[in-house]
Amino acid sequence: MHEEPEVLPLINDMLAQWQASWEDLSDKEVKGRIRYTDILVHLFGKQPVNITAKEADKLMKTVDAMPKSNINPYSKWTQTQRIDAALDGSIPKEDRVTSSKHALKVYQGFYKWLKREHIIDESPFNQMRYENKQGGKRGAFNIAQVQRILDFSVKCEDPAKKWVPLLMAYSGMRNGEIQRLTKSDVRCCQVTKVWYIRITDSKTIASSREVPIAQALLDLGFLSFINTLDEGRIFTVSDKWLTRYYSGVLKRVCDLPSVALRGGALSVYSFRHTVTSLIRSAGANIAMTSAIMGHSTEGGIQAHYTHTELFSLQELKDIVDAIPYRPKVSDNLQEVGS
Prior knowledge:
With 338 residues, the protein is mainly alpha-helical. The protein folds into 2 domains: 11-116, no CATH class; 143-321, hpI Integrase, Chain A. 45% of the residues lie in helices and 4% in strands. The protein has 15 helices and 3 strands. A 3-stranded antiparallel β-sheet has the order 1-2-3. α1 (11-19) packs antiparallel against α2, α2 (27-44) packs across α5 and α7 (159-171) crosses α12 (270-281). The N and C termini lie far apart (61 Å).
């Protein structure tokens, strides 16, 4: 007697549950998501969530064929009329949307949520990529730009507004990694007596690592801040908080351009490019850079035989402490850690 295959929930039903979790989104963000989930519902709403890669490809081709909704006559059409026109290929190329970037991000976000909720094992959108207006290239902040961010952040009373940019500037941690940090992830090595942050539950094996806490952060009182917290997450902010905070506050207040001097879009991710460049300049080789940043080492023999966990935390801290910028504060705060 064979077992019946598991019947997964329908896309319509799971989209309704996902939408109920959007409480931290702005009205504009909600409308943007609905615009793209309407297309998913139109095509596959009554199907189980495990659509095939071929069906996902059909969905993205439909998005690419959609008309711009802000020009006539399409601005007067319903979304259903626009989708039907995209499906029959009747929209002239010059009237079609210029990018499917945001749609893909919405679909990837939905299927990432389904995976996190243990509804599916794999996403049909995993291998899909988009290129941004800068051709996919990210830029790095220069030292003066980071200095402005640090000088502003160190004066903020809100813990997230203060410590998140400071941590990123001295560690290059990813946004998601900082969000998942808990009080128990801040530790002291019993051998070297170096304070470090344990990063786990990251996107690859290489991403799991132990990052020394820069002396500049210790001098600012980072451990004292940690000691005031209850167990659990250090920063209770939403997934989109840092992106919105950067574009809505930091970029304006710190007078940051949209594009780096030598090209590449500037964003919160630019901290990773800056830190990587600076620690390499301070003498970190590829393997040491991987140990700090969570990058995979290069392929071949080096990747097979290099074990980044064998580097001394003190050795890595010396590299991190060589990062040249320092927040300007009126008082020289001293750490009272435990």
